[in-house]
UniProtKB/TrEMBL annotation:
InterPro entries: HcaT-like (IPR026032), MFS_assoc_dom (IPR024989), MFS_trans_sf (IPR036259). GO terms for cellular component: plasma membrane. The chain crosses the membrane at residues 21-41, 53-75, 82-101, 107-126, 147-164, 170-189, 217-239, 251-271, 283-302, 308-329, 350-369, 375-394. Residues 20-370 form the Major facilitator superfamily associated domain. It is found in: Cell inner membrane. This is MFS transporter. It is a multi-pass membrane protein.
Length: 404
């Protein structure tokens, strides 16, 4: 599939392109690094019970799997994606101020639903801008994207210390200020014009390419990835609440989340040295087994007297249960999906991940309410289902790239 030609303006590299994109990534991940670990603590502090927390967390996930591809497709048709990015960040910041209003269940749920619409596309749109620079000017994507991981890590750690001093009521303020910083950085985003290829999650690309991708191997594999990923829903929704319930301080909670990020980054750094010869199926089997071990271990750490050190040990498995899933998915797409259909492949995988994560998050509230930390045990059969699907994928693996 031939790409449209670049305009004369698009042939000129924007000044300080890598620095500007690094700043975009650094600022957009601070709010996310605060929301994931600490927003459930804020909800609990506002008096919501586990089932209400699960609904508030899950409902936006169902919504965003529909709205995000639409918005990225809109951005692809705009004069410049940077302008759409700025508008979405501004809308996200304004809507997030709704958390400063009296925290009724209906009000917080409404704000969370509205917030998910402009917030979720931030990362794929930033990726799209950065990848345009990679294609046109040979920029180094990882050198720019690493600042997102660094800021996410810092948000985990610093957020924990802030909450230790102020309590969970600071969470909405941290998110609002972080989004304000992202908005300021957004005005410095490089202007790249219209993309020559659709954004990774664009609805247009998915609609065009999906029929040729829906073969047994691709469907089984992406379903397996989505379900193994969804087995982490209980962790993301309720582990901070659990840690606080057994007396672990906010600062240590932040460090535990940050340790998971460090483990993930280490796997990205050393994967090729350790697993270079491993097939994608073997990678995913290891990831699935790592998930199962993680969910078995979590309820045992505190009763066995392993203490905080035990939780750091379990968090190290983030390198296997999360990082290897991400790597395995990209490795599968790179090996079996033709280049012009990779965006659609990413979009379909995003849909499966988002849908199953939302469904398991919704179920996690009642599980935590009734079982507490033993709710992790319910994640084991979910991960096993994911492994079975990976096994079915292995039986139907293609001998040539699909979608070509």
């Amino acid at each position: 599939m031939s790409l449209p030609p670049l305009s004369p303006e698009q042939l000129v590299k924007p000044s300080h392109f890598e620095l500007r994109m690094s700043l975009i990534f650094a600022t957009l991940f601070v709010s996310q690094g605060t929301h994931l670990p600490y927003f459930p603590l804020w909800l609990e502090a506002k008096g919501f019970h586990a089932e209400q927390i699960a609904v508030i967390l899950a409902a936006p996930m169902f919504l965003r799997v529909v709205t995000t591809p639409m918005l990225t497709a809109l951005a692809d048709r705009a004069k410049d994606r940077a302008n759409v990015y700025i508008a979405l960040v501004a809308a996200t910041m304004i809507i997030s101020a709704g958390y400063f209003l009296p925290a009724t269940y209906a009000g917080v749920l409404a704000v969370s639903l509205l917030l998910s619409i402009p917030w979720t596309p931030h990362s794929p749109m930033a990726d799209s801008l950065a990848l345009s620079g990679v294609r046109r000017f040979g920029s180094n994507y990882t050198a720019m994207r690493k600042w997102g991981s660094i800021s996410y890590f810092c948000a985990n750690v610093v957020g924990g210390f802030i909450l230790a001093a102020t309590g969970p009521q600071a969470v909405p303020a941290i998110i609002f200020v972080a989004l304000a910083a992202a908005l300021v950085a957004g005005f410095w985003a490089p202007r790249m014009g219209r993309p020559r290829k659709a954004s990774p999650l664009s609805a247009t690309d998915i609609q065009h390419s999906a029929p040729s991708l829906l073969n047994a191997y691709f469907v089984y594999f992406t379903l397996g990835v989505g379900i193994i990923t969804a087995s982490h829903a209980f962790l993301y929704g309720f582990v901070s609440i659990y840690w606080k319930s057994i007396g672990i301080s906010d600062s240590i909670v932040g460090l535990l989340w940050a340790w998971g990020v460090i483990s993930e980054v280490c796997m990205f750094l050393f994967f090729n040295r350790i697993f270079a010869s491993a097939s994608v199926v073997r990678v995913m089997v290891i990831a699935g087994i790592g998930s199962i071990v993680r969910w078995i271990a979590f309820p045992l750490v505190w009763p066995l007297g392993l203490g905080i050190a035990g939780f750091f040990g379990v968090q190290t498995l983030h390198s296997v249960s999360v990082a290897m899933v991400l790597i395995g998915l990209q490795k599968m797409i790179g090996e079996t999906v033709s280049e012009e259909r990779t965006g659609a492949a990413q979009g379909i995988a995003y849909f499966f991940n988002g849908f199953f994560m939302a469904a398991v998050t919704l179920a996690s509230g009642p599980l935590y309410d009734r079982l507490g930390v033993d709710g992790f045990l319910a994640m084991i059969p979910i991960a096993i289902v994911g492994l079975v699907l990976i096994g079915l994928a292995a039986r139907s693996a293609p001998q040539r790239p699909v979608g070509g």
